[in-house]
Structures are given as C-alpha cells and as structure tokens.
C-alpha cells in the first residue's frame, strides 16, 4: 500500500518538533527568506524549537496548512510548503514552497507541488491555484511554467526590500489544466 502523500522523489509530512534546526538553518539565509517572504529579525534557537513544536500539534485552519518536504532517497528534510489562503466559496487557493539551497534543482519542488495540487484539486474540490512570485526569482518562475502555471498578472513595485521595490508575478493553474498534465488515479 502506498501513501497519497508520497511521490517519486518526496514525501509530504507534518512538521515534527525535531525539525526546528532545519528551519533555523533555512531562515539563516537571507536569500531564502526573501524568496519566500521578507527578511525577518533573527530568532533564537529556542524560538525555532517552540515554533516547530507548535506546528507539530497545530490543527489545519480550514484548508490552510504547512507541511514538511522529505527526500525519499535520504529521509532528509529538504523544504516545506504551505497553503496560505483557501477560499472554498470561490474555489481558489494560494500556496508557497521553499527548498533548501543544498537540495534545489533535484525535482523535489516539482514532485511536492504535484502532490499538493492533486490533493487540493482532487480531494478538496478547489478549482484554481495561485502563486505569487517575486519577478527576480527566475528559478521559481521556471518551475511554475514547467508545471503548467500561466502568468496572470504583475503587481508592479509591490514589495519593498533590499532598498527598493520589486514586482510580484501572479501565476495560476486551474484543475482542468492540472489534470490534463497529471490525470487523477483511476480507482
């Protein structure tokens, strides 16, 4: 028996208290913080530990949640993803993903996103996924284009960091567009 949450390269799982050190190391890289969000002040090891412990017991808020991405070949934590906004009435959700620098360009993000979209489209009945990506993040833009996302718009000078404003690219994919590339399993 295989798990729905296991792909070809990764397994999506809940965050465990012992994952705190990985998140602390991830947050230590300015590039990682900025590619996902904005630069935050440093947090103590104890604060990272408390955060991971909180995440490990937190119940999803509706269809918003955060998962760890674990490499199948090593069992190592390589990233995380989260559904940030989910609106069942409109059938739209937004998500974010981060892969550690040592684990990028190995197909982990692609595999993790396909698992997430299969769940949100095929099990939760959402119709559309949106991703907001900084315009300078060429790797993320290429990832999303490769998955079949379409650029839907650009919010000019939308985010401020590193001393200037940056554009935010909005990309989207519908459930039919996803299933055309990744058909659901026949039961």
From TrEMBL:
Name of the protein in question: GNAT family N-acetyltransferase
PANTHER family: ACETYLTRANSFERASE, SPERMIDINE N(1)-ACETYLTRANSFERASE
Pfam families: Acetyltransf_3 (PF13302)
Organism: Streptomyces gobitricini
Coiled-coil segments: none
InterPro entries named among the record's database cross-references: Acyl_CoA_acyltransferase, GNAT_dom
Gene3D superfamilies the record matches: 3.40.630.30
N-acetyltransferase domain location: 10-176
């Amino acid at each position: 028996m295989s798990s729905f949450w296991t792909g070809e390269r990764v397994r999506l799982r809940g965050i465990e208290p012992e994952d705190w050190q990985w998140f602390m190391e991830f947050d230590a890289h300015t590039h990682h913080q900025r590619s996902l969000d904005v630069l935050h002040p440093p947090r103590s090891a104890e604060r990272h530990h408390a955060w991971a412990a909180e995440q490990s017991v937190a119940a999803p808020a509706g269809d918003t949640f955060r998962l760890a991405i674990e490499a199948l070949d090593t069992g190592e934590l390589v990233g995380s993803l989260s559904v940030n906004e989910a609106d069942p009435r409109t059938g739209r959700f937004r998500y974010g993903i981060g892969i550690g620098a040592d684990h990028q360009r190995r197909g982990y993000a692609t595999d993790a996103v396909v698992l997430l979209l299969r769940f949100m489209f095929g099990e939760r009945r959402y119709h559309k996924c949106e991703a907001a990506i900084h315009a300078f993040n060429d790797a993320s833009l290429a990832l999303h284009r490769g998955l079949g996302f379409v650029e839907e718009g650009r919010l000019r000078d939308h985010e401020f960091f590193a001393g200037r404003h940056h554009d935010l690219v909005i990309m989207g994919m519908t459930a039919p567009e996803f299933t055309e590339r990744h058909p659901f399993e026949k039961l």
